[in-house]
């Protein structure tokens, strides 16, 4: 397993380099100008100096190398300096600058990261905790009323896009319900809100309910169906009949033997689903005005902010490659029949 992990980590390097090059070329070929948002009164000479300072006039391969250096070498050192107070000699080096805000891209990302992690992390945890019991019970009580209801909820989660379900819950809980009602929920996420006491915590909890609900619906639909299918596959195996014939309690047979073997593909799905939920968060953050990474990406695309778009897209690509590796490692750990070495 250790050799496999090292081999996969080494293979990750050229994979990420290839992905970064593709992302860079696609974004760079788009018609964007770092001086496009500046006032028209600025002379063309000044605009040319700005392009020169940002390195836009250099050959594409030089721009690509500069971007890699800034992303993998400069920005991590700056983060370490800020986190631990070290002096790693980053003063005076050119950082990756946003075309829109004229501020470092990684600073923008770090500012918005906590909001996205709070909403996405909570949604994924809630969705997983709801999906697992639904899948287990649906498989054990196949074709029952509970199973039919679980199937219905899963089909709704698969079929309804987040931009529709988000607007729907806003209409139900923010428009149709009076604002003085206990069941009223805020439709706009206040990212400046700070939790200092019980009342502020309750407000934070209330404003997270709808975006978490929308994201958790998709997560629950996917994981519950995989759990149900995996449980059904194992419930009909010979070792289950043997365990029952030996007089084991039904609870032990289902929750220990069957569930353990059924969780092998489910854990893989859970690991692989973490990057995809960030994609769903892009739409959800727009609907509920969550000032997170998804909204930052949409604003950057609309404004032609090339550095921000390519950096965020590459971060999402890193998450996909990383969690694919984690899923493969977990699969080998959970299933003793699989040996990668």
TrEMBL record:
Q: Which residues cross the membrane?
A: 9-27, 116-140, 152-177, 258-283, 314-334
UniProt-listed InterPro entries: BPD_transp_1_N, MetI-like, MetI-like_sf
Report the sequence similarity comment from the record.
Answer: Belongs to the binding-protein-dependent transport system permease family.
Q: Name one GO cellular component term.
A: plasma membrane
Q: The ABC transmembrane type-1 domain covers which part of the protein?
A: 113-327
PANTHER family hit by this protein = DIPEPTIDE TRANSPORT SYSTEM PERMEASE PROTEIN DPPB-RELATED (PTHR43163)
- Report keywords, A-Z: Cell membrane, Membrane, Transmembrane, Transmembrane helix, Transport
BP terms from Gene Ontology: transmembrane transport
Work out whether the entry's keyword set contains Ribosomal protein: no
Name the membrane topology term: Multi-pass membrane protein
Q: Where in the cell is it found?
A: Cell membrane
Annotated coiled-coil segments of the chain: none
This chain's protein is named Peptide/nickel transport system permease protein
Q: Which organism is it from?
A: Litoreibacter albidus
